[in-house]
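seq:
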Amino acid sequence: MSTAISIIILAVSFTGLILLRFPIAMVLALTSLLVAFTLDLPLAVIGQRMVQGINSYSLLAIPFFILAGQIMSEGRLAVRLINLAQLTVGAIRGGLAMVNCVACMLFGNISGSAAADASSVGSVMIPMMKKKNYDADFSVAVTSAAAIQGVVMPPSHNMILYALAAGGVSISSLFLAGIVPCLILLFSLMTLSFFIAKKRGYPKGEPVKLKDVPKIVRDGFLSMFTAVIILGGIFSGWFTATESGAIACVYAFILTFFVYRDLPISHVKIIFLKTFRTVAMVLFLIAASSAFAWVLTYLKIPALLTEGLLAISDNPIIILLIINVLLLVLGAPLDMGPLILIMTPILFPVVTALGMDPVHFGIVLILNLGIGLITPPVGTVLFVGCAVGRVSIEAATKRLIPYFCVMVAVLLLITYVPGISMWLPNLVNGH
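struct:
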């Protein structure tokens, strides 16, 4: 069978299974098997590629990061980080909205998950904001938008997925590259929240009592030390990403169960079950994506796309704009993890042909697809925020429009000013 027909079969079967609401991992696996069958390839090749896709030492970092984040999420970490954030921005007009932004950044610095961010911080902040006469839809919107910082701020397991899909990009460089863009995003979201709060007359926050400051700082520092272990160990060269994740799990366990005593020791079983369930889904997704990426390469789809985009224009500004628009459109109906694994092998040859640094492209890709998490119809973080705040998707989406515009503006800034992402990695690596 010709390559053109196989590409059509791949596109039709992939789209059809998505429309039938099959799980994305099953879509990738079944599509890969179908295309292999039409090409008269041994079906065992797909199984081999799936096994090869998860046969990587670097992948061990993902379960450790997920477990550490799960342990901290089950405790009262979000409350402690919110209290810490209130020390800095809580007392000004719209302070609770800005506290929400800062708390989401701090929590994302530990969990690495936007959905966990929205759930944990949102379950505390949204009721608090509503109690202080903030509109419910605005509270959900600012929580959902701020939670996206969790995918850009290290340690994000999405960065590990990209590093593997891109063929071994440095994880530590990706972690470093995400810090400055995340801080710019935080400042942008806080600035927008301030002007919205001022326009709508939202109240000033209450100042923190002086006697409570030492305890808030101590608890906040102990909670944030999980991120210090992970990032400090990696950046200093003392640990690999996998080793730092393991040490962070031990620290999070001791802090949650023996220092704070937020949970009874019997709760460990629940934490492990939730972690195993998440890890199993992630690993199967990686395996299926590995097979799908091999099929794409076999059909020379990345090469064809590279030729097609470069035929449109040889101007990097135009090509990168097209890529951003494509990713924003795809991010609306599809989830972030699968898109990283699917689109990286397709777009990577294009951006490298333009001379774009793989680390820089990783940050652009991750922020772009992170925005998709708050974009209907399949905005996972948006759904979580609406469920926590008991607000309709339509109402929250309307309030999200200004935040969406600001995030796209930050995305374009990061895309066209490589120094924003690359300054810190180049500084640390001595380039």
